[in-house]
Amino acid sequence: MAQYSRPDNDQSAGNWTPSSGSDLFAMIDEASTDDSDYVSVQDQMTGATETFKVDLGAVTDPVSSSNHKVTVRAKDSVGYGTVAFIVKLLQGGSTIATINSFTLTGSASNHTYTLSGTEADNITNYSNLLLEVSAQDSMGSGTTTTVYQAFFECPDAPAPSDDGISRIAYSPARSAASSAAFNATQRIR
Hints:
The chain is mainly β and 189 residues long. It has one domain (2-188): Jelly Rolls, CATH 2.60.120.260. It is built from two helices and eleven strands. The chain has helices at 117-121, 172-188; strands at 2-5, 7-12, 17-18, 39-42, 49-56, 69-76, 83-91, 94-99, 109-114, 129-137, 144-155. Strands 1, 3, 4, 6, 9 and 11 form a six-stranded antiparallel β-sheet that branches. It has a five-stranded antiparallel β-sheet with strand order 2-5-10-7-8, with no helix packed on it. The radius of gyration is 26 Å and the shape is elongated. It starts with a strand and ends with a helix. Mean pLDDT is 87; it is low at 169-175.
């Protein structure tokens, strides 16, 4: 199984706008893909980098460095891969991973990055993770970049270990029966 950490608060919006309401995180936090709500930004033909940042919900430390993933569902309006699309997984102010391998197209698609063991091991607080998303159209063609969904995934936390100590639950009925049996044994002697 896996744990999913989804956006739950806006840190900064920059020039990104939600398709409805005022919160970016609420547009990209769904568990199932829903392209009817999203956040977007249009390049102002200056080549400026447009960035937003959202907090991620807390998950429990999986005590493992495998299968840590960041997934973003996004597209650009031009579809030529001209947008430099960069996603960062942060812990507080520290960068855990910088992902610049996502090439956007004209159709919404999922882009997933699997963290290296070293990147995953650098996470020390799974309740203080953030995603930072940036888009830059270096061609200055007025491209609109749209993000539909974003989340962090990691393995489930391990079950508590058995320390080998047997525990017997206290039961008043068992205690009374045990006392009665002990008293009966003592009277027989």
